[in-house]
Please model this.
Amino acid sequence: MSDYEIDEIRRIRQQISREHGHDLHRIAEHYRAMEKELRKSGRYRFTDERAHEARTADTSGEWESTTAR
Model:
């Protein structure tokens, strides 16, 4: 990516953060709502969380938390 593209991504992310009062919970909710809309559109494919969890199982058969990494 060019510096321009990276700067544009940063500008948009900062704008979204500012619009949500730099509140992490509000920002996360914004992205969850955006994801929900994109899923409903059918134009994009998303990784199934269960499939992701299955790939992160440890060798003892116990599930390893994906957030602990």
